């Protein structure tokens, strides 16, 4: 019984929370909003944990808890949900990050008021994000993929950077234009697949592995799907929506945007593009890999040029998601495992970094290097230490989560799928290694500029103080998981590898 | 046992961070961690030396490619190094309790020294390249944090970042090299890789890539630039970095993969050339520098080149032996330099002088340490250096794993370095302890017992390790490492090098005496500033690497703003134009955007599907 309900509960609980907020009388809802948010996201997290516990790890390569119902059979639409070793970690990541965000919101309110609406939108966002990872039908996947956009637009435009109203609106709009264009193109790919293969069932399509579709159809469909998802990931040079959107969004928005929304793109590549239209993906994989490593180096260089912590953290996503895409482009189990691991690790690490950047900004009224000066270690030692931890995790230090994903994507590039050109991918590997080095350079530069150095601001900030209880509580799970996955990567790889080993070509 | 020796310092790191707010607690955690690890290491070493080598597999990490196996080994090389690492770590931890007496950041400092120790032990016991890499990189970040201990100082900040980034540069090659080695053997396991190594071009490429990492970590030319700067960190940290941990890891890795290296004469020749260049260049820099700690740092580069040179010419035990000897005397010299700095507030030789009288303990210890370094018989340094030189002579005359020209190069530069080493050691000894006092402080004194005892014990070890030399070939198991050699003395090289030691010492002493206590380095004349600046390599890298990178940075930032953003805004304008109709009907911006979006999606999908399917 519970197995049949659990996936629906994952979405119904936050949805119920969202509806409660909209239907309660305004006064009560405003007062109760943080509590409702906490309970709803906590319920979703609990459901995700229950699903993980009941999940049969021994057969993580097969989809479990499958539910299927007719939706609009005339249009060939079905409600199909399920979870396997690939989607389960993303579901857990999403539920955890949303819970951390809403826990944080209990005390740290976003500037812009209307807390009831804000929390309702975050819960709606969670429904869309979790749905994307659970969907097993291309149309359903698309629907969930789109549901996410509208709340995110409001979150950025209404609760974004309070000092820059014009900037935040334009960031939100750029975000939505880009991603809608992207998902439109993706939908074209889905429709081609659906029309040619006669079904939108992702399990069936993956099992067929492109059988019944001509090479030309596959190529067109793969280009559309990958091209559309590439906007979301984002793949260089489609990344320019990202820095503004991340930098202008409120802390919680940035955390979810970078932590989960980007992963929806990379998850789509692994879940849909690679298994459904493999021949098409094989043709464009070298291009994708090339763009990925350009993104790695370009992102690192751009980070070195940033003068604002939040923008730097935002830009770092371009480089880190480059690894995620490179792993996919190798079309090997190792690369795909690496891609998934790197995505999860990035979700945790970038989530933490955005929390920290937000905390720095809240305390100083600015996140620019010039305004912050140095000496965070002296002024706010715990915050400084955590920022160093985040930076060290982001630069891929072994023993922390960021390392294993990078390692495996690089291993994939070293030994790519047989159909791909090995010398070319060795070249990509070399460029990516330069990117690894530059990543270390910009992150240490950030530590050096903000955390170390003489404290020129002094005790003016004593009112705000160091890391508060609620901050510690909402960041602790991220820190713990970054360490846990770093020391025990098999925890995730044993889930993911059976799926990928069946998929790589 | 091996697990215990990693986990105890690691636990000390965790406990130190969690409970280290009280100074006394932090001290006990740190010393207990290092102490238990050291005792465990000694017991384990005896077990292994008396028993048999073994490999333990603890678990496996699936990768979808070659699996990563959590495997450790217990063999002579491992236990020898584990004892060395934990001994130096213990000395450093005890010394630090007194040296950092008034330092508010002692707690985190001690915790990271524990992590550093754990990471190095992990490197030494790992039988899987990726597990080794984990320890290897963790040491990098520990060095970043510890060198940057005085983060208020801009030199410390730069040195910390430089140490991490320069070694990380080498690690890029290292990782690629590991991939190649692993594909050759279809395993990341070191034992499998060494067992299956056969001469081939691929193996040579792999090993040269591995050498990139070695050159970075062991501060060899051209990636040596980080080590002298790293001396701005605390002196006990220098003692740890320069002897038993990071820099030793590079030499250790060559020793660990020695069975593969002997299969590739080319890779060994590359190693020989790097070592030859580094030992002379670094020794010259040591000769000219005015800072005691920087002299020691350059000397470290030079001595590490000795070890690598020894390994390159087939002297496996000799190289490892010198690693152990060097760890003892260099740790001791750094700790003594720290005691001097503590007493007189500077490490500049030009502000020392006449310290023999007020600091007799440090004087005796340093004298012995320097004598070990120049290789005066019958101290340990003599045996370890002579073993390397005779291995080089052997390979040069009778052939070895390396081409004979490369062995000649190691032999000749090795002898030249003997001369320079003797000269700079004498110079330091004279300037620091003899002549007229140049210190501002009127009352320098011998250090606290918690600083003095570690120095004394390390001095004793450095002096007395010599006889151990004859047990060493068995102790480090050359058999399992694929080399078969001993520690021996060739009479020709021994006589020549002793003569050179004498000349070097005498030249420095004579110059000092004749010119009334003048710095003998002044005799270098116009080239002295060049040597003291490390041949200007830093400035060269600044011009050829750092500046172009920042040029690219500006390009990337401008590129996003001027080249990529506009095309997107162009698309945005088109979309907005499409949305102009609904916007004219409704005033709210939100509705306009949402409508725009929906309209554009519908149009895109219809057009796209039509195009795609026809």
Overview of the structural elements:
- The complex is a heterodimer of chains A (505) and B (614).
- By secondary structure, chain A is mainly α.
- Chain A is built from 21 helices and two strands.
- Chain A has a two-stranded antiparallel ribbon.
- Chain A is globular, with a radius of gyration of 22 Å.
- The C terminus of chain B is likely disordered.
- Chain B is mainly α and 614 residues long.
- Chain B contains 26 helices and two strands.
- The chains are: A mainly alpha (505), B mainly alpha (614).
- At the A-B interface, α6, α7, α9, α12 and α14 of A face β1, α5, α6, α24 and α26 of B.
Secondary structure category of chain B: mainly alpha
Q: Order of SSEs of chain B, N→C?
A: HHEEHHHHHHHHHHHHHHHHHHHHHHHH
Based on DSSP secondary structure assignment, what is the total number of beta strands of chain B?
A: 2
Name the shape of chain B in a single word: globular
The geometry of chain A reads as: globular
Helix and strand pattern of chain A: HHEEHHHHHHHHHHHHHHHHHHH
The greatest inter-chain interface is formed by: A-B, 78 and 64 residues
Instruction: Tell me the Rg of chain B in angstroms.
Output: 28 Å
Largest sheet of chain B: 2 strands, antiparallel
End-to-end CA span of chain A: 37 Å
Q: Show unreliable segments of chain A.
A: none
């Amino acid at each position: 019984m519970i197995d049949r309900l659990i996936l629906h509960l994952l979405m119904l609980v936050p949805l119920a929370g969202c509806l409660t907020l909209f239907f309660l009388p305004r006064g009560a809802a405003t007062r109760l909003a943080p509590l409702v948010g906490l309970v709803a996201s906590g319920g979703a997290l609990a459901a995700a944990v229950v699903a993980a516990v009941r999940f049969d790890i021994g057969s993580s390569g097969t989809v479990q808890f499958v539910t299927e119902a007719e939706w609009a059979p005339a249009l060939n639409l079905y409600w199909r949900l399920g979870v396997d070793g690939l989607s389960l970690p993303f579901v857990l990541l999403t539920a955890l990050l949303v819970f951390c965000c809403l826990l944080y919101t209990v005390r740290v309110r976003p500037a812009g008021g209307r807390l009831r609406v804000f929390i309702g939108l975050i819960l709606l966002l969670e429904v869309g994000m979790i749905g994307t990872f659970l969907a097993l039908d291309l149309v359903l996947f698309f629907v969930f993929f789109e549901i996410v956009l509208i709340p995110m637009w409001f979150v950025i435009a209404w609760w974004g950077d309070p000092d820059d109203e014009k900037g935040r609106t334009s960031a939100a709009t750029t975000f939505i234009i880009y991603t809608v264009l992207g998902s439109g193109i993706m939908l074209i790919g889905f429709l081609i697949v659906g029309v040619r293969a006669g079904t939108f069932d992702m399990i069936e399509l993956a099992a067929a592995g492109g059988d019944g579709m001509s090479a030309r159809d596959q190529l067109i469909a793969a280009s559309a799907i990958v091209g559309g998802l590439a906007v979301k990931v984002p793949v260089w040079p489609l990344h320019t929506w990202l820095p503004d959107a991340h930098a202008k969004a409120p802390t919680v928005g940035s955390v979810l945007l970078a932590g989960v929304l980007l992963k929806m793109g990379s998850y789509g590549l692994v879940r849909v593009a690679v298994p459904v239209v493999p021949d098409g993906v094989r043709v464009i994989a070298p291009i994708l890999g090339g763009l990925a490593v350009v993104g790695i180096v370009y992102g690192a260089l751009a980070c070195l040029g940033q003068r604002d912590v939040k923008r730097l953290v935002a830009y770092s996503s371009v480089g880190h998601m480059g690894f995620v895409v490179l792993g996919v482009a190798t079309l090997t189990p190792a690369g795909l495992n690496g891609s998934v691991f790197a995505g999860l690790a990035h979700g945790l690490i970038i989530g933490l970094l955005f929390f920290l950047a937000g905390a720095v900004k809240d305390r100083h009224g600015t996140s620019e290097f010039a305004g912050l000066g140095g000496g965070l270690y002296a002024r706010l030692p715990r915050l400084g230490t955590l920022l160093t931890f985040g930076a060290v995790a982001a630069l891929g230090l072994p023993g922390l989560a960021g390392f294993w994903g990078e390692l495996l994507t690089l291993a994939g590039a070293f030994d790519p799928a047989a159909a791909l050109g090995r010398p070319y991918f060795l070249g990509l590997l070399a460029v990516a290694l330069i990117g690894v080095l530059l990543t270390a350079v910009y992150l240490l530069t950030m530590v050096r500029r903000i955390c170390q150095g003489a404290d020129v601001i002094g005790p003016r900030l004593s009112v705000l103080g160091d890391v508060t209880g609620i901050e510690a509580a909402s960041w602790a799970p991220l820190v713990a998981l970054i360490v846990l996955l770093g020391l025990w990567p098999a925890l995730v790889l044993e889930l993911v590898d059976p799926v990928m080993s069946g998929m790589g070509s | 046992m091996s697990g215990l020796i990693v986990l105890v310092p690691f636990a000390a790191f965790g406990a130190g961070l969690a409970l280290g707010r009280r100074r006394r607690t932090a001290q006990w955690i740190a010393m207990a961690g290092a102490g238990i690890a050291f005792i465990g290491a000694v017991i384990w070493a005896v077990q292994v030396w008396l028993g048999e080598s073994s490999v333990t597999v603890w678990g496996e990490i699936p990768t979808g490619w070659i699996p990563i196996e959590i495997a450790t080994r217990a063999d002579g090389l491992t236990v020898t190094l584990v004892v060395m690492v934990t001994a130096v770590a213990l000395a450093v931890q005890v010394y630090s309790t007194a040296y950092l007496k008034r330092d508010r950041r002692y707690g985190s400092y001690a915790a990271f020294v524990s992590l550093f120790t754990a990471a190095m032990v992990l490197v030494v016991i790992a039988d899987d390249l990726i597990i080794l890499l984990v320890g290897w990189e963790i040491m990098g970040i520990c060095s970043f944090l510890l060198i940057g201990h005085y983060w208020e100082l801009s030199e410390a900040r730069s040195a910390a970042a430089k140490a991490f980034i320069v070694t990380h540069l080498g690690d890029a090659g290292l990782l690629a090299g590991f991939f190649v080695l692993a594909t050759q053997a279809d395993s990341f396991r070191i034992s499998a890789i060494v067992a299956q190594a056969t001469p081939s071009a691929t193996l040579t490429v792999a090993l040269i890539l591995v050498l990139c990492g070695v050159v970075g970590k062991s501060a060899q030319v051209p990636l040596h630039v980080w080590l002298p700067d790293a001396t701005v960190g605390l002196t006990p940290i220098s003692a740890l970095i320069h002897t038993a941990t990071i820099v030793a890891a590079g030499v250790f890795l060559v020793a660990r993969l020695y069975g593969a290296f002997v299969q590739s004469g080319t890779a060994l020749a590359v190693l020989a050339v790097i070592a030859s260049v580094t030992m002379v260049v670094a020794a010259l820099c040591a000769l000219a520098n005015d800072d005691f700690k920087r002299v020691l740092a350059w000397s470290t580069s030079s001595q590490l080149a000795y070890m690598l040179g020894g390994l390159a010419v087939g002297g496996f035990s000799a190289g490892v032996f010198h690693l152990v000897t060097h760890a003892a005397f260099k740790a001791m010299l750094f700790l003594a330099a720290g005691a001097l700095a503590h007493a007189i507030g500077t490490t500049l030789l030009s502000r020392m002088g006449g310290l023999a009288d007020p600091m007799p303990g440090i004087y005796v210890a340093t004298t012995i340490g320097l004598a070990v370094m120049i290789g005066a018989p019958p101290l340990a340094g003599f045996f370890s250096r002579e073993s390397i030189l005779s291995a080089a002579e052997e390979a040069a005359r009778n052939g070895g794993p390396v081409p004979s020209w490369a062995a000649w190069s190691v032999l000749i530069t090795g002898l030249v370095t003997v001369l320079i080493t003797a000269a700079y050691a004498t110079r330091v000894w004279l300037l620091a302890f003899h002549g007229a006092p140049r210190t501002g402080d009127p009352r320098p004194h011998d250090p606290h017992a918690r600083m003095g005892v570690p120095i004394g014990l390390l001095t004793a070890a450095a002096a007395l390790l010599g006889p151990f030399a004859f047990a060493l070939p068995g102790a480090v198991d050359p058999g399992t490492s694929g080399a078969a050699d001993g520690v021996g003395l060739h009479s020709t090289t021994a006589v020549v090098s002793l003569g050179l030691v004498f000349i070097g010492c005498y030249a420095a002493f004579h110059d000092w005496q004749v010119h009334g206590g003048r710095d003998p380095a002044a005799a270098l004349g116009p080239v002295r500033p060049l040597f003291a600046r490390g041949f200007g390599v830093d400035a060269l890298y600044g011009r050829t690497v750092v500046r172009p990178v920042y040029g690219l940075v500006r390009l990337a930032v401008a590129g996003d703003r001027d080249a990529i953003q506009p095309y997107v805004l162009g698309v945005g304008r088109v979309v907005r134009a499409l949305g102009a109709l609904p916007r004219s009907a409704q005033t709210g911006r939100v509705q306009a955007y949402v409508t725009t979006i929906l309209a554009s999606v519908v149009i895109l999908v219809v057009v796209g599907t039509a195009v795609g399917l026809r």
